[in-house]
Amino acid sequence: MEEKVFTNMTNGGPISVYVRNGKVVRVRPLQVKEEDYKPWVIEAGGMKFSPPKALRVAPPVHAERNRLNSENRILYPLKRVDFDPAGERNLQNRGKSGYERISWDEALDIISKEIKRVTETYGDAALSGMTSSHHNWGIVGYKMGPFARFMNMLHYTPILDNPDSWEGWHWGATHTYGFYWRLGMPEQFDLLEDTLQNSEMIVFWSNDPDTTRGTYSGQESAIWRVWLKERGIKAIFIDPFYNYTTAAMDGTWMPIRPGSDTALAMAIAYVWITEGTYDKAYVADRTIGFDEFKDYILGVGDKEYPKTPEWAAEESGIPVRKIVSLAREWASKRTCLSSGSRGGEGSACRTAYGTEWARMMVLLQAMQGMGKPGINIWGATMGSPSNNTFWFPGYAEPEGQMGKAKIAKNKLSYLNKTKQRLFRLTLPDAIMAGEGDFWGEGFCGQSLEQQFTHNVYPIEAKVKMFYRYGGSFMGTMSDTNKWLKMYQSDALEFVVNQDCWYGGEATYADIILPACTNLERNDLAEFAAAGGYTTNAHTGNNYRVIVRQQKCIEPLGESKSDYEIFTLLADRLGMKELYTEGNTEDDWARLFFESSDVAKTVTWEEFNRKTYHIVPVAENYKRTPGFRWYAEGRDCDTPDTNNPKRGTDKGKELGTYTGKIEFASESLRQNMPDDQERPIVPHFIPSWEGYRSEGYDRYPLQIISPHPRFSFHTHYDNHTSWLNEISVHRVEKDGYAWWPVRLNPVDARARNVSSGDIVELYNDRGSVLCIAQVTERVFPGTLHSYGCSARYDPLIPGKPGSTDKAGCINLLTSGRLISKHAAGMTPNSCLCELRKWEG
Fold this sequence. Notes:
With 839 residues, the protein is an alpha/beta fold. Helices cover 24% and strands 17% of the residues. The chain is globular, with a radius of gyration of 26 Å.
């Protein structure tokens, strides 16, 4: 039979899918006609830099066919064998009992009847549910479309997300330089060119862009870091782990003790202040509160003690001479700071009081003139030349098929009358206790004041039904044994799990529904474009690519698209017309297309035939480097269209209360002046779980668990057997694919551990088995093991606290929040011990 080629989009980039006899036989990066590429050129240092005529997807995407046909696919509706909605429910057996296959009609009948029972008995707010951090790609089929539209229609209790990649920036940096509309992350526009042309040094601090890849941009930016090396720009890496970008760039590694990053930053500021090597004019004109900050750094009056290099050396493990040398070289060169893949992010911001580190990153660059040529905060994964005026919705735009496209008649997100909210990090505690509270409104992208909202639960009804959708939290949230306890508690009378693959939580549901993948449905989307609060994320790519996602094969088994599943449920609830407005998935796709600028260039029929559209960079492209406008005292001229002051009489200002960079935060002063954990001036506050905390004598190893290199959160792991052959990801031994943990030889010798040994990591919260990799690449006293295992495999199924074989490191991490009034997660503030497994 003739081979057919289809186009689709993944979390890691666009692909061409080759199908023969109804089966996917090959997957490649999207094949584009050579004449459709219009490469841009950057000139720097007498050299010219231009991207290749090719698209570079993330490594695991090459295994998309393997993932599609995974033995872990959920293919049929299932019911827990000892669950009887009309009789004994045996809630305590979730995770223990098996499942039996049922028909779609039976599954949908049970779910719809339970929705009616719960809402009629307790009220609409007794229904709740949530998605995972990420889902399969596509505007129509993404989580913010079908799920949000359906649940808002039912007036459910929303569970607010935490920004699990950039906590400290969201809760801290916003109070220093604004950018709350970017959730704390700075502008990245045209910073690739600015760095190539103007920077003499780049400091990668808690950032491994070769691993995190700008989130969705695949390997597009990998060549940029080759260019940085060709330009001779010196690279410094501050990280407890000798990461992969360090190796690729042959950078200078400064290993640091986890939890001490803020101390090092303050010692650098101390050197600049005492030696007078900071930009005094910029600080005087573009910032406020410097004197308060200076007093704290110098230890003036009652400001504790001076933050000297000697003090920071004791905290960080970095010798004094290296701290002083770094500070002096940084001040003497045009230095770019790379403190996370999007400028903001980085593992150091997911620690106790990570707000203080993120604030210090902004303030260090402010002391050197942030925004001036070559002096910025840039993640080395975004900021390519791009047509940013061309509008196409990202996956976060719909919000129930709404957003900027404004194509829906029924604005269901706004019709949800339920006022109470729950929070993802504290959900298990609130459900089991029947009460709870938290600060903030999840993603606080509308104002700084949102962070000071105090939410109390319940105010309408206690949640009795939980609809779980997408990848597992067992490997991504904190202290995750609590999730298992929640599932087995009497508080939740009914649980549904809807997903494409079995994850750690699926078998804790009463009903499991099989969703199909993006290769089995139609949609449309743009490469890397999230939209919403992360506008213009396509600047992480060398080309701006919009694709028509094509249904490549029929859904496997009896799986269905998420939109079809929720349409069937809406029909049983008598709300089908309200939900669909008479539209199929293809109808919604066309409406999104027609609302966008692509429709001004090609017709719908042409787009469907070609299946992709590349938006070229204009020949007269105007560079607008991020933050340059502020450094030069001009109105904001970047494409940051969410900036509420842009185009107003306050266009020269930042989003802080004073409109300036604030060494002493006015938003904190006015709203929480007595907060000792997120003080007005950034402080170094020792972690409540770290090298100076109680319990360090029993659990002397600090484990850090950054985002993984060969999966995307829980995507691809466990569902993609080919990844088990990559020793960085998993290591097969005795017929099992083990999750690696990396430890220093000093720590290995003290515990009689060698590479290849199965070891147990444990503390009071849990126990996890991993395979040891002994390496000098890890700071002594530190363990490095990527987060986000999609498999949860306890030795005793269904028993919370049972030792997990699969590498769910977050069973060990604390559920304590980043600080009392900042609801961020802290997985990198975790103490444990390690021993050879003898079980």
